[in-house]
Amino acid sequence: MSEPTPTGPGYCPYLGLKQNRAIRFSSPTPEHRCYVGGEPVEIPVDQSAFCLSRNHVQCPLYMGLTLPSIPAPSSATGAAPAAPGGLRGWLRTLSPRDRAIYALMLGMLAIIILVYAIAGWQALTGGAPITGAPSPTTAVAPATATAAPSPEPTPTATATPPPPTPTALPTSAPSPQPTPSPTPEPLIIAPSAIPTQPTDTATVAPSPTTGATAAPSPTAQPVQPSPTATAGAASPAPPTAAPPATPRPPAPTAAPAVQRQRLWLYFGDATGTLFVPVQRLVPVEDRKVATAAIGALIEGPRNGLERLIDPQARLLSITVNNGLATVNFDRPPHLNGDPRGLQSIVLTLTHFETINRVQFQVNGRNIGVNGSGPIGRPVVNPLNPDNLPVDYAVTEFLPTYYLANDDYHTIRIIRMVPKTRQVAEGTVRALLEGPGIYEYAVQRTIPPGTELRSISINQGVVRVDFSARFAEASNRNAAVRTLVESLTTLPGVTGVQIFVEGRSLAEWWGEPYGRVYPKPLINPEG
Questions:
Q1: Which of 40, 161, 212, 443 pairs as cysteine with 33 (C-beta 3.0–4.6 A)?
Q2: What is the pTM of this model?
């Protein structure tokens, strides 16, 4: 599952209309639905106080808070007052922001009508100015008179006339015809909607010495005969032939823009069984982030991780259309036919918001896993002791991170539990239960027997209170790291603060451990 990018204060990232999730309004409507589980559900909370306010990060539908009840509207007579009808009633239902938008649109319409009216008037009068402009006929001034140049008129803010009343255009003025839009084609490279840190992107300007310097154009002029010709010569000497002109070198081609962006990549762990996510700074040319990501996978892993992609594979093309990315290689890209190679590419590409499936091709021929069809995003390292279905409507997928046996990387294990609204609490309890069948590949950093005393969320910060057993962790940094990485993966969570027996962790381990831990990078690589 890709980590959704939190939306700024103003409305909830899971808010949309039941007919089309991509459409939202800034005022409450009965058509609004919540998409936190992937399917539209009724919104049981006050939209003004949660979905469309700065408090949306406390919404119980995805942050695990107590479900507030919405009091039913009542009045003295027992019936809700009827909203005023007509244009005035409709205007009252709009928010100030919507009113400003409509006012701006009306102003633009008035300006367009004014421009067409002026153009039509000039067409009727043969191009003559509208008001009081001097005649285009220029009088011939006497030779002794000095003509002073007429200054150009400069627009002033106080001289703007009010827009005239809209009138019908003259029939003789040509009406503009809309230009037919070309048929949209598949986007070649997906845009970069990647969870990157603002400080990780640096524009690499092309070196001024890389471009070729244009040579000056040679001037080829014929050599003229000498003006001092001999009087007795029968005919003047013929002119010397001009040298051939040197062709002009072609103009230098601008170097492509290169940026360094932090992209999600997936490789294998030391045991050869689990996926390890890393966030690597990768050079990206002309915003071709998908091409850059696949190139980084072909380049291979670092720090002892397992290679899953054939280093000899070459990407021929990539297109994205309606969420389907089609990647064409010159050979099967996965090493030794291991399907984890194809799945690592799917996991990497589906971190982009515009990609949810990947179709692999070899020289234009479709290939896949157990068939030739496209591949959707698989569950990363699933832990499913109850054999729950892979169905977002009935199953909750909790992200937990554990320290790998190499004591360097953290590995994400998805714990599958029955559907719950207490996602933050469920994530911490899953982390305390341990990695289950993956104990051979990862380590417990939180001591066994640690109990969760309480958990709360305030303005995106999760406050977790453990029993005293937590303070006995032998690897303190790893215990804090795995807890913070697990909780900040949840949407809307911006930080974590840890308490033990109701007291700040700073009272147990020292001042540095009492701060609010922000969302970290996962296995960052430079």
A1: 40
A2: 0.54
Q: Which two tokens stand for residue 525?
A: 């690589």
Dihedral in degrees, nearest 10, Cα atoms 467, 468, 473, 478: 40
Phi then psi dihedrals of residue 455, to 5 deg: -150, 135
Would you say 236 and 225 are in contact if contact means Cβ atoms under 8 Å apart? yes
Give residue-wise pLDDT tens across range 324-354: 999 999 999 999 899 999 999 999 999 999 9
How many CB atoms are closer than 10 A to CB 325? 27
**Spatial separation of the C-alpha atoms in residues 382 and 273, rounded to whole Å:** 12
Report which of 289, 279, 318, 314 is spatially closest to residue 299, judged by C-alpha positions. 314
- Please state, in angstroms and as integers, the Cα–Cα distance from residue 75 to each residue in 68, 70, 71, 80, 182, following that order: 22, 16, 12, 6, 56
DSSP assignment, residue 286?
Answer: T
Q: What is the DSSP letter of 28?
A: -
Helices (DSSP H) in 14-168: which residue ranges? 60-63, 86-93, 96-124
**Helical packing angle, 289-299 and 339-349, nearest 10°:** 150
Beta pairing class for 357-362 and 324-329: parallel
CA 519/CA 447 separation, integer angstroms: 23
Sheet holding 382-383, edge to edge: 382-383, 410-418, 395-404, 442-443
Question: Helix (H, G, I), strand (E, B), or coil: what is residue 108?
Answer: helix
Q: Is 140 exposed, middle or buried (0-12, 13-18, 19+ CB in 10 A)?
A: exposed
Task: Give the distance, in angstroms, between the CA of residue 492 and the centroid of all CA atoms in the same chain.
Answer: 16
- Residue 271 vs residues 296, 441, 442: alpha-carbon distances, Å: 22, 7, 10
* Tokens of residue 320, six digits: 């994205």
Return d(Cα 188, Cα 325) in angstroms, integer: 9
Q: Could you tell me the two tokens for 406?
A: 């190499």
